[in-house]
Design goal:
The complex is a heterodimer of chains A (280) and B (283).
Chain A: H1 2-34, H2 59-67, H3 70-101, H4 105-119, H5 126-135, H6 145-164, H7 169-177, H8 182-193, H9 195-211, H10 214-219, H11 228-237, H12 244-264, H13 266-279
Chain B: H1 2-7, H2 9-34, E1 37-38, E2 46-47, H3 51-58, H4 60-91, H5 98-106, H6 113-130, H7 140-168, H8 172-180, H9 185-196, H10 198-214, H11 217-222, H12 234-243, H13 248-277
Antiparallel strand pairs in B: 1-2
Classes of the chains: A mainly alpha (280), B mainly alpha (283).
Chain lengths: 280, 283
């Protein structure tokens, strides 16, 4: 039976390789153009490789880093992603534990509200949310995590609660009998068991916060603070001719950190995504 | 244990709940209320009854964006799920380089919608201009297919991962039994594998459905609705109603559109979950 499939398997590998090259091509195209001189980036020669005449080295990257406030935006994006994801992981796992262990009308109502919030489209709340954030002064890169905690709670609580149902109660009861209070029990016993779920929730929420565009645009003051997606959209929309070289370099600098993180942790990321979906 | 834990309720529940109330509950209730009002900020709202809804339901652009969203959703859901399942089947056959292929096909998922939209805008515009056709800003057919290609590029890898997980959970003894009974590969797929991975199909169709209805970033970055709102999807139409025009009436119109949109998304996802859940089987 095995011998029969061999030949078709070779054909499949060839076809998949062609598809893989096509998949990578758009990113490759941005990469080669980010290394060209400005006048060599046009609609007719966008597909050609840089030659010795048109090769610009890293000047586009240096220009992008300097002139467009890219470094600042990168800093804001990193700050927002780290604070938001940390807050979501700690607060939502605690909340989910309480909801699964203390069963009453209040906790089940809260649980269904969290689930409901996952389906509601952002446009439903975007205007009122930005007004609420303004009035509570939660519109700075260092405290916008509160909004992300509230808006990301649905998915996180749902996934944590799904996993916690499978943790045997006896472990927690044993630690309580040994004299731990609930806080110690949670952080010393439950939290370590949660590790795989923490990783998958962390990955899903980080992907969301890092790439999010509309929420920070509406909540942050765009003149003062721009995250990376905001910066890219802003420069495209600004008046006058957009310089393509630095633009392509900015796109590459946005993608490269993601690809590095992905290649380093791809097993965890792929597992996390699959686990997250099965829970859903 | 309940009792001991209850004393600590404030520490465990309040941080998340407070943020949830600020970030979701209050905006949601205010949003519902404001859909019946004329306003420019939350504090100057004036009750106008169903006027906003009347406008929203008769707005030609809104209806056009509904049609566009539905036709986009139908085609992209089919293509993404067939593509994702097809790749998953190939990548569970122990072919050479399976891991590399999986890594590559999943990668576009990690790139944000704004950046993706921009990359594809550059690429598609160059192809169009070399072919002597009108660019995206004037070409709604290219805008439609561009969005579909972009979404396939981004989402097939994600669905593929979920389908791979589903296929790996199909027990070997069932597949062996099918082989001994003389079932052809095609028959094994439709009669054994497909019913067994129904839970994965439920999830993937649900995700692609809600993603395509809620799509915003990619739409804004690729076409921004051009030409003349013809490639504008529901979310972008609502955004433009809110922020692209000045005048007392627009925010109320936008909010009532958002309420209609919200109800639509909830109803569609409920129907879909019911429909595919009922086809799930137990091993």
């Amino acid at each position: 039976m095995k011998k029969k499939t061999r030949f078709t398997d070779h054909i499949w590998v060839v076809l998949l390789s062609i598809l893989a090259v096509a998949y990578l091509y758009p990113i490759f195209m941005i990469l080669i153009n980010s290394l060209k001189k400005e006048r060599a980036i046009g609609t007719s020669n966008i597909f050609s490789l840089p030659t010795s005449e048109t090769f610009a080295g890293f000047t586009n990257y240096i220009n992008a880093l300097g002139a467009q406030g890219f470094a600042k935006s990168l800093g804001y994006s990193v700050l927002i992603t780290i604070t938001a994801v940390a807050a979501i992981l700690v607060c939502c796992s605690m909340c989910a534990w309480y909801i699964t262990r203390v069963r009453n009308k209040f906790t089940s109502a809260l649980y269904y509200l969290f689930v409901f919030s996952m389906v509601v489209p952002f446009q439903m709340v975007m205007f009122t949310l930005s007004q609420t954030a303004d009035s509570l002064d939660l519109n700075k890169p260092w405290n916008i995590w509160v909004i992300y905690l509230g808006f990301g709670a649905g998915l996180a609580v749902f996934m944590f609660a799904g996993f916690m149902k499978s943790i045997p109660l006896e472990i927690e009861e044993a630690s309580m009998i040994d004299g731990c209070n609930p806080i110690q029990t949670f952080f010393l016993v439950v939290f370590p068991i949660l590790k795989p779920t923490l990783v998958s929730v962390g990955i899903l929420e980080a992907m969301w916060v890092w790439n999010d565009y509309l929420l920070p645009v509406l909540v942050l003051d765009i003149k003062k603070y721009k995250t990376i997606p905001m910066l890219i959209q802003y420069f495209r929309g600004s008046y006058g001719k957009v310089e393509m070289g630095p633009m392509m370099a900015s796109i590459m600098m946005t993608i490269i950190p993601i690809i590095i993180v992905y290649l380093l942790g791809q097993k965890q990321i792929i597992k996390g995504v699959a686990a997250g979906a099965v829970k859903g | 244990m309940d009792k001991a834990l209850k004393k600590y309720a404030p520490i465990f529940v309040i941080p998340t709940t407070a943020a949830f109330i600020i970030g979701f509950v209050i905006p949601f209730i205010e949003g519902l209320y404001l859909s019946f009002c004329r306003f420019t900020t939350v504090s100057n709202a004036k009750w106008v009854g169903f006027d906003n809804f009347k406008y929203a339901l008769t707005d030609a652009d809104f209806r056009q964006s509904f049609v566009f969203t539905v036709s986009f959703a139908v085609v992209s859901i089919i293509l993404i799920n067939v593509g994702g399942l097809g790749l998953a089947l190939l990548l569970t056959r122990k072919l050479r380089g399976t891991n590399i292929f999986r890594t590559i096909f999943f990668m576009p998922n990690l790139i944000g919608g704004i950046v993706l939209g921009y990359i594809w805008q550059i690429l598609i515009n160059c192809i169009l201009s070399n072919a002597g056709k009108p660019l995206l800003a004037l070409n709604s057919t290219a805008g439609y297919w561009g969005l579909i290609i972009l979404m396939c590029w981004q989402q097939i890898g994600y669905m593929m991962i979920i389908y791979i997980a589903g296929l790996q959970n199909v027990p070997d003894d069932i597949l062996e039994a099918a082989a001994i009974d003389g079932a052809s590969p095609v028959k094994t797929f439709f009669r054994v594998k497909l019913p067994m991975i129904m839970p994965s199909i439920t999830i993937c169709v649900f995700l692609t459905l809600t993603n395509s209805f809620k799509l915003f970033d990619q739409n804004l970055a690729l076409t921004a609705g051009a030409p003349k709102h013809s490639t504008e999807m529901l979310a972008l139409n609502i955004y433009n109603t809110f922020y692209a025009r000045a005048g007392m009436q627009w925010k109320g119109y936008g909010q009532s559109k958002a309420v209609i949109f919200c109800i639509l998304v909830i109803v569609i996802s409920m129907i879909q979950l019911r429909a595919t859940r009922s086809r799930e089987v137990q091993a």
